[in-house]
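REQUEST FORM: STRUCTURE PREDICTION
Request ID: SP-0412
Submitted by: Lab K.M.
Chain count: 1
Length (residues): 431
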Amino acid sequence: MRGVALRGTVVWGVRGAAVALTLAGLGHTLWNGVVEPGTALAFGALIACGELARRDGRDARDAPDAAGDRRPAPLAFTGALAYALLGPDAARPTHHGVLQIVTVVAAAALAGIVPHIARGRAPGADHLARRVLTVAFAAVCFQPLYNSGRLEHGIGQGPYLVLFLLLLLGLTALCDAVLAAALARARTGWPYGPLLRDELRAQLGIGSAICATGVVMALGVAVAGLWALPVFCVPLLLTQLSFHRITAIRTTYRQTITSLARATEIAGHTRPGHSRRVAALSCAVGRELGLSERELTVLEYAALMHDIGQLSLVDPVRAGATAGLPAAEARRIAALGGDVARQTGVPAEVAVIVERQADPYREQPIAARIVRAVNAYDDLLGGTRHPGGPLAALEQLRLGTGRDYQPEVVECLARVLARGGRDRVVPVPPG
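STATUS: Completed
RESULT:
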């Protein structure tokens, strides 16, 4: 309970800081008026258009596979960073401050998500809070130095300025990753270290592209004025649409694998929902063990297809429960499953995990150890051998840790179940 309360405090602390900063900026702007209104309007329109162009209104972390879609609105975030790092406008000095930047970014983002709210697909509050705090961090590091003249006197307008901006954006990306991992930890209860590692790894991809484009956009406006904005908008918008298509392809691919996995249920070889339960719980255990996003994706696919070999059996296993079979028979079914998986075109790692799930755990890759333990747990829980329920099933797994199940995997499974089990795992889309 203390951990849940602490995670809730983190979420409300981040949201509260973003709201307080936005209200302070709004009050300051209303009292003093908008400085350089044309510039503020141009960047505000860019940010709003970026939010409008988002396809999915959910926070990226709510998606089952978020590795490639942590930036659902890269155009909006790039425009916000460029405004935070804006110095001269067509060689004319600007005087907008940090609070006005926060106000413009928050107002434009809210204006851009209004249509998504109307369709019931608004982004989460955490997304907006991260946006405000990250942009505010970049503005606080840059604007006081620029407005005071110390940046120009100390660094000038040459390559040292570009290096300074790149260094600043590196710190901004680190700030965003820390915030994202903290919010994801508070929302899911997953370990903070692997979440932060995944966020930092994602920053090397689309995150670094956004930051670099933000620098170039700010420098372009400094030389060419606001006409530089549409020049950068078109490729960014096309890139954002490409991300949407990639995400749609990944979703379709996952749904295809899920539908294929349901073939064992439709044929009566396994209990209804077994493969989806094993996949969801396996991903939760993988998170607990610190697997990366890519490893979790491979684990999810393998867990969905772990019983596919039963389609090759003449005599089906009773209730599809392979946990109680003799070792030789379990390995034979697993080998059949690996052959079937290879014919479906899934990545080679998925087929390897499927065919090795019945081996002694010391000979298995970590994903196969997870699938074997979780599959056995669901088989035991669905049978009549353990009227004591989950605790009795877990105890049975602990008795098999000498050869069949890795002790660390079993204990991670116990911790996941203690936190709520499958209810706290991102659901696998139905077939």
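NOTES: The chain has 17 helices and no strands.
Reviewed by: T.R.
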